Amino acid sequence: MEAKSIVISVEGMTCNSCVQTIEQHVGKMSGVHNIKVSLEDKNAVVIYDSKLQTPATLQEAIYDMGFDATLAGSDPQPVLPDTIFLTIPTQSALTSEQICSTLLKNKGIVDVKVSSDQKTAVVTFISSIINGEQIIQMIPGADLNVSVPEVTPGTCEDSSWSQASSVVLRLKVEGMTCHSCTSTIEGKIGKLQGIQRIKVSLDNQEAVVVYQPHLITAEVVKHQIEAAGFTASFKKQPRPLKLSAIDLERLKNTQTKGAETALKENSNLNDTKTVVFRIDGMHCSSCVLNIQSTVSALPSVTSVVVSLEKKSAIVNYNPNLISIDVLRKAIEAVSPETFKVSLPDEYENVALFSTLASPLKSPHPALKGVSQPLTQVVVINIEGMTCNSCVQSIEGVLSQKAGVKSIHVSLANHNGTIEYDPLQTSPEDLRSSIEDMGFDASLSAKAELPVAKAQPSPEVQLESHKTEPPSKVSPAHLASQETKTVSKCYVQVTGMTCASCVANIERNLRREDGIHSILVALMAGRAEVRYNPAVIHPSAIAELIRELGFGATVMENCGEGDGILELVVRGMTCASCVHKIESTLMKTDGVLYCSVALATNKAHIKYDPEIIGPRDVIQVIKDLGFTTSLVKKDRSASHLDHKQEIRQWKRSFFVSLIFCIPVMGLMIYMMVMDSQLSDAHAHHNMSDEEMEALHSSMVLEYQLLPGLSVMNFLSFLLCVPVQMFGGWHFYIQAYKALKHKTANMDVLIVLATSIAFLYSFVILLVAMAEKAKVNPVTFFDTPPMLFVFISLGRWLEHVAKGKTSEALARLISLQATEATIVTLGPDNVLLSEEQVDVELVQRGDIVKVIPGGKFPVDGRVIEGHSMVDESLITGEAMPVTKKPGNTVIAGSINQNGSLLISATHVGADTTLSQIVKLVEEAQTSKGYNKSISAAEVIIRFAFQASITVLCIACPCSLGLATPTAVMVGTGVGAQNGILIKGGEPLEMAHKVKVVVFDKTGTITHGTPQVMQVKFLVEGNQLPRNKMLAIVGTAESNSEHPLGVAITKYCKKELDSETLGTCTDFQVVPGCGVSCKVTNIEALLYRQNEMVEENNIKNVTLVKIEENTDDSVQPPLIIDAELPTTMTSQKYSVLIGNREWMNRNGLLVKSEVDKAMMEHERRGRTAVLAAVDGVLCGLIAIADTVKPEAELAVYTLKNMGLEVVLMTGDNSKTARSIASQVGITKVFAEVLPSHKVAKVKQLQDEGKRVAMVGDGINDSPALAMANVGIAIGTGTDVAIEAADVVLIKDDLMDVVASIDLSRKTVKRIRINFVFALIYNLIGVPIAAGVFLPIGLVLQPWMGSAAMAASSVSVVLSSLLLKMYRKPSAEKLEFRARGQMRYKSPSEISVHIGIDETGTGSPKLSLMDRIINYSRASINSLFSDKRSVNSIVLNEPDKHSLLVGDFGADDDTAL
Questions:
Q1: CA-to-CA distance for 1378 and 1426, rounded, in angstroms?
Q2: Element spanning 1417, H or E
Q3: CA distances from residue 827 to 25, 223, 865 in whole angstroms, order as listed
Q4: Closest residue by Cα to residue 1231 from 500, 175, 201, 203
Q5: Nearest by Cα to 999 from 876, 892, 915
Q6: Is the peptide bond before 336 cis (omega within 30 degrees of 0)?
Q7: What is the side-by-side order of every strand in the sheet holding 866-869?
Q8: E strand spans, 672-829
Q9: Mind telling me the catalytic residues?
Q10: 16: helix, coil or strand?
């Protein structure tokens, strides 16, 4: 028999009578154990026997009653039953069949088995329907079977025989996403028969189970976890707990004992103990009565006295039947479940001995003669404890362990002091027991101290001697041995997404034998492991990391990470000083190499950072009597700047331009004169001789020497400097290219200009030799024209590239330059402080960071609480709470509390250094495409066809085609608020196939705003304005973004710049604030005066409308009532999360909790406000989506682009934002390095990628993307790293920039047509192809055609000036009715950059219908509504304040 639970959706219920009808009808069906119908949730939860009923038959039964019933889509869940053992009285009149049938008639009983001797019945039942006491009452005279103990689900109390044969099982559990998953598994598995203890770790994705193999198998445990919807696999094969000889002896004895012996033994153990609990949260006598009646009903409690005044409960109980932990839980479970129960310090020792399995302390036969057994004390270091509940759970579990005499765990010192019997347990066993509970435990260096002075008998001595290790070695010797055998290796780790992954790897590897220490760098993706090569080798370490689900490879040639130090040493006078420094340093342990130069006063030192640090080296030199300081590193990214290239191309451009302008003037003059002559020839019928004479009489055609005209001579003089100086760099580059047997743009330009120049020069020499009367046609105007435009393009390109180094310089400026290093004494007492350069900070140093200061290095907090702005890495505006144990990032800003951190990553290993490296790599690997592709292809083809014809055709219009269009395009972009850095991004943007958006500050505003206020008290108790005034005043002292948002909202609502007075202001990071508020009466009085004015106006309006006489009429439209008196009052205010309210003794009702969960589901932060101990408001705050975001995404998709959202924020918020703007592919919880990797991954798929971002964390991805687009309101670093900057904070400009690129490229193509059309037609004629038919082209005609093509190209480019970016109104009109919110099932969210994310379930029929109807309704709405849901995204202030949650969903239409 297997019980299962199914949820059936039921439509058509109108009242409670419908509910009762369904429950009665279905409840009577055979095989149905229980049914619970909810009118609010419109569903029925049915627990049924899967052999007698199926979900389909249950659905049909409800359907037949006239209700619409559908299966909710989830599979039936197995219901885990409990088991009870009953002793049947010997004189019972009922047979075994009658007992079975009697019990099975009752709902909730799944199975009954009666033993062959009819003395015991095993009843399997569902505890949520029926309990053990009710079952006992069904059979007269039946009683609980004591010999087979009932294991209470969830408690750790077991009998001696079960304790002795426990097995520990470690399982890897995949698919857990939050703490609710862990509690589900713990709850389900904890209830199973034979499970003693279970601890599930979300970070490690593992479960540690202690179970009894004779009652349950490891396979069943694994199967049950899988039945709960998770993937489980064995990490290590189950291993039995270590059993001593005593345990084995006792196990044999227990198994041979009969039931009567056990009963007798039980009666002998009737000694009782007294414990005193402190109980917080009792309010009145009814709480006292509730606790007394509940606890006294427990069978093991003999008496209980509860005192309201002393806040205590004195309980007299039998420790053999119940433990202190169970008693404490029993009190906490008393309705209303808000009592906080703890043990006062003076009674702590009582708690230490709470145990169920008293027989475990039975003395060993050999110890009978000893008055006092020898005990030892061990101190175990425990990491991972967060509160007193951890302390109590460790003490509770270990105190029940065999051989443990006493235990005291200290939260402050992170250790536990345990007094134990070495015959029954060992320190290693105790340590592993603590680790099994999920904490990190290590044995302290302190020796184990014998406590008792009594001498045991010889037998005991003999036995204790056996248990000692074979050789005792002094700790000092051990330590020295250890340092000799420790090796170090580096492992490249992939797949890490956040700090939790780092903690997971570090925690698990530290447990492994042979590993001394491990340090993981998240951004570098590297683990540094120190290990014992005799025990473990690097490949095995990598395998251990791979087992945890990460990629790992051993880095072979990583180097030992030697430190290099460059120092300036002052005070050296001769070579002996140099020798003195070098010899002293080389003798120093840890210094590997040293070189000192007297001439430059510099020292170059290599050292092992594991042994010695830079400060120690400096101190050694100072002790020798020299002054020394660090060589100041260049903190600018000079290696990436393009200053030299910029200077070179600027010079080249201006040289070419100076000589090009006169050449162009001469050319235009000749064109004008030629056209006039051709007109004269046409109209005045002049002969050719007359024409020739007139032509030669022109000033420029006058021959200085025979065959050398003024025009040709001037052109030659102007062309030579351009060819020599302007084209110098082109010649060098062309030579280098040809040397490597490649051809690039430079080769083509050199070829074209050289041939034009040489051809013209040769033809001029020939004409002079022949003393020609007619001047030859030369092409001296070609080189200057080409060089001008190409050098201008190169100059602008390098200016744009030069901006990249500014981005890096700004990034490096984020790094703190100095650090405050402190020395701590015992109990973390501050002994000294010292300011040092950040390069001198060593790993392991304790660094102090004051409020407002930057973290100089990555580290771990060891003392203090604060909020830290980490937007540098995550891009999220919300500050993060930091407490001891948390990691901090270099460059992030400490906000409100002083912190002491231990440095873990220094120098080049810090996260900030890694981001700088990422940006550098992205910018150097991106490789700008140097060719103007279309031009290159055409020019190359033309050269191959005929170099001569190319020169005759003159390619200067080809040279103009791209630069002019790009210049006009970038100018038009700037006019429209789009700054484009050079030609590449403008040309590349039209090829983009994927647009990747960052979330915070790009899709959203980046600052939290109040979305909704829900009032939880009636208006007559606390008026709306009064509450807003109190809450706004309370948060006015807060620096937290949420507090700022609340104050801003309250000021706006109250229309006031000033609020009341706030005193006793206290902040608890991660929880909330508490304070006292006064002086809000004046503010409310001003408000009321305005109300009064409104009332008078309203009365007047009513009078005018009704046209009545002046008889007194009551005002019909009244805003609010006015208070008559004005007295100053003090209000006690609490604002914060659930935990903050619970800490302060305020109960959060289930409907409020449900409302909060709904807001959190939609990615908002829900904050509770309480005034004078009464919960009065719920404020929902969120980072709102920009109004134009949805339209921008829709338009980009319409342009055929794929749109992706990539954010460092959590998946819940990311999904919510994506659904609002219509993005279906989301990558959440992404690191800056992963953003780069994702962009690279998309590029490797052959897609061109545009990245839109605004934060420092986006800058590496902006640099790597084919087109990086930065929001103008973003950080300087992002703006410098991007190719395109949007001046306005408007996402429609992303659409405009891609549209402008498409238009510009289209214009360039048209320009090429204009440039070539003349040449394509003119060249064959010029070459004499059509000579047979008498068609021939005169030189002046060729000149005119060439000029016309250049003019056409320039005019064509100028037409781009007409460009207007697409207006939002037009796009909205086109998109009318087609934009809609995406349902969660349509959005695929991936954690990190892994493509196999949380896949979307297929859309159900219901979803499809809803989506279709939503789109249809949208199209029917008025224009204002259907534009997109802008109106709905930001509800007006009145709808925000509506208390009804029905109208809450601002995504609803």
A1: 9
A2: helix 1405-1420
A3: 69, 48, 17
A4: 500
A5: 876
A6: yes
A7: 880-882, 866-869, 893-894
A8: 703-705, 708-709, 818-824
A9: 998
A10: helix
